[in-house]
Design goal:
Elements: E1 3-8, H1 13-23, E2 31-37, H2 43-50, E3 55-57, H3 66-79, E4 84-87, H4 96-101, E5 106-110, H5 125-134, E6 138-145, E7 155-162, H6 169-193, E8 197-200, E9 203-206
Parallel strand pairs: 1-2, 1-4, 2-3, 4-5
Antiparallel strand pairs: 5-6, 6-7, 8-9
Helix pairs in contact: 1-6, 5-6
The structure holds glycinamide ribonucleotide (GAR).
Length: 210
């Protein structure tokens, strides 16, 4: 069974979508083995507790650099025998030690259609502010493997979402979550756990199900 760790920094609605998929038997047999937060006192840890998933804190503020935090995270993930790392609203850039420890075994959900509105500085509500300021009519979400480049790894799944007149960043964020993120993140995790994803260069191929 694939042991999954979900890395979070905040509210954890994407974590909740994964818990829902697990409870419906739709996680491809993956086990939600740990939730690790970069901050104490976030609601995502409460969600983990309510779902019977062990929660841990590796606080960014306890480390001098992203590299030091990444090294502590890798040590924790190895100690917990984790096979798949899911970044679900994790708000820090991990350094290459993580990618080396988990090649093509880290997935991230990003609230835009990569390669638009992504990379350093594009996280959380800022992504939607920037999409609205640019005037695009369609945005969405992307689930991708994590490599050394922020938001630059091979794309697994994407889903488009319309921007509507009068949208605020908050309204758009909610629509992107409801219509895209909460669906494609559990789907991508299930595909990984079923061994249906293969990666060649930038291209992810999804094998047919049984
Ligand atoms: C989500 O929209 C997620 O895609 C985004 O932050 C939000 C977290 O919400 N992640 C990033 O911007 C990472 N670059 P959640 O804590 O409710 O899942």
């Amino acid at each position: 069974m694939t042991r999954i760790a979900v890395l979070v920094s905040g509210g954890g609605t994407n974590l909740q979508a994964l818990i829902g998929a697990r409870d419906r038997g739709e996680l491809g047999g993956g086990e939600l083995a740990a939730v690790i937060s970069s901050k104490a006192d976030v609601y995502a840890l409460e969600r983990a507790k309510n779902a019977g998933i062990p929660g841990y804190v590796v606080a960014r503020k306890d480390y001098d650099s992203n590299r030091a935090m990444t090294q502590a995270l890798v040590a924790k993930l190895k100690e917990l025998n984790i096979d798949l790392v899911v970044l679900a609203g994790f708000m820090h850039i991990l350094t290459e030690e993580m990618v080396q420890a988990y090649p093509n075994a880290i997935v991230n959900v990003h609230p835009a259609l990569i390669p638009s509105f992504c990379g350093a500085g594009y996280y959380g509500l800022h992504v939607h502010e920037k999409a609205l300021a640019y005037g695009v009519k369609v945005t969405g979400a992307t689930v991708h493997f994590v490599n050394e480049e922020p938001d630059g790894g091979p794309i697994i799944l994407q889903k488009a979402v319309d921007i509507l007149p009068g949208d605020t960043p908050e309204v758009l964020q909610r629509r992107v979550m409801e219509q895209a993120e909460w669906h494609i993140l559990p789907q991508a995790v299930a595909l990984f756990c079923q061994g249906r994803l293969s990666v060649e260069g930038r291209i992810v191929t999804i094998k047919e199900g049984e």
